[in-house]
Amino acid sequence: MIKHHLFPQAQEFRTWFRDCGINIHEWTMLIPEQVHLRIHGGANGGSWNHAWRQFMRANPGHVPREVLIRKAFELALRFDIAGPIRPYYAPVPAPGPQLLAP
Q: Which of 42, 43, 76, 77 is the most buried (most CB within 10 A)?
């Protein structure tokens, strides 16, 4: 499991998110590494960053924090990712009990 930033870390987004009241490091989702590679594969951060880039271009200037959080969860649903939300600097919890088929 790795920590996926719901709000991209790329330089092009940092000031915009900060000015809108988002600390990108407070919003990471624990997801499997192969899923992270799927949504970020390709140029310029892959399809995840592309979706945010489109949203940012369509909404220049200040966007309410609540709208951005809603957009992050909308994208999580669209990209079929789910996991606990944790700050980037919080430790990754140990995996819980596993159910294994005989």
A: 76
**Residue 14 identity:** R
Phi, psi at 4, each rounded to 5°: -95, 125
Measured CA to CA, the distance from residue 75 to residue 56 in angstroms comes to: 13
Helix axes 65-78, 46-58, angle to 10 degrees: 140
Q: Sheet containing 28-31: which strands, arranged edge to edge?
A: 2-5, 28-31, 85-86
- Dump the DSSP string for 42-64: SGGGHHHHHHHHHHHHHS-S---
Considering just the CA atoms, what is the radius of gyration of the chain in Å?
15
Dihedral sign computed on CA atoms, order 74, 26, 8, 31: negative
Q: What SS3 class is residue 29?
A: strand
Asked if residue 43 lies in contact with residue 24, where contact means CB atoms within 8 angstroms, the answer is no
**Residue ranges for the chain with pLDDT beneath 70:** 93-102
* Per-residue tokens: 57: 């271009």
